[in-house]
Write a structure and sequence with these properties.
There is one protein chain. This protein is an alpha+beta fold. Helix content is about 35%, strand content about 20%. It has helices at about 15-25, 45-55, 70-75, 80-85; strands at about 5-10, 30-35, 60-65, 65-70. The protein has a four-stranded mixed sheet with strand order 2-1-3-4, with helices on both faces. α1 links the parallel β1 (about 5-10) and β2. The N and C termini lie close together (about 10 Å).
C-alpha cells in the first residue's frame, strides 16, 4: 500500500497548532505528515512554491496527496470531520 502524503501549512497561530495536532492524531501508519511553517519558510523555498501550486490563500491549510482539503478550498475552519473526509487516517 502506498503512503498518503499529508501536508499541513501553518504560520504558528493557535489554530494552526491545533490543526497539526488533529492531523497527527488522525494519521495512520500509511500517512506521511509534513508540516510547513510559512513564517520561517524552508531551506529550498519549496513550501512557498507549494502554496502557489495548491492555491492556498489562508492557513492553516491541509493538502492530501496533492489536493487541497475541501474545508480549505471553501475557506472554512479545518475540522476533524473534514480531515477524515479528505482521507486522513484511512489506511
Amino acid at each position: 500500500m502506498s503512503k498518503r502524503l499529508v501536508e499541513v501549512f501553518t504560520a504558528g497561530c493557535p489554530l494552526c497548532d491545533e490543526t497539526v495536532k488533529v492531523v497527527r492524531e488522525l494519521a495512520c501508519e500509511n500517512c506521511d505528515v509534513q508540516v510547513y511553517d510559512l513564517r520561517s519558510g524552508c531551506a529550498t523555498n519549496i513550501c512557498r512554491e507549494k502554496v502557489a501550486q495548491y492555491g492556498i490563500h489562508r492557513v492553516p491549510a491541509v493538502v492530501v496527496d496533492g489536493k487541497l482539503a475541501g474545508c480549505c478550498q471553501k475557506q472554512q475552519p479545518v475540522s476533524r470531520e473534514a480531515l477524515v473526509a479528505a482521507g486522513i487516517g484511512q489506511g
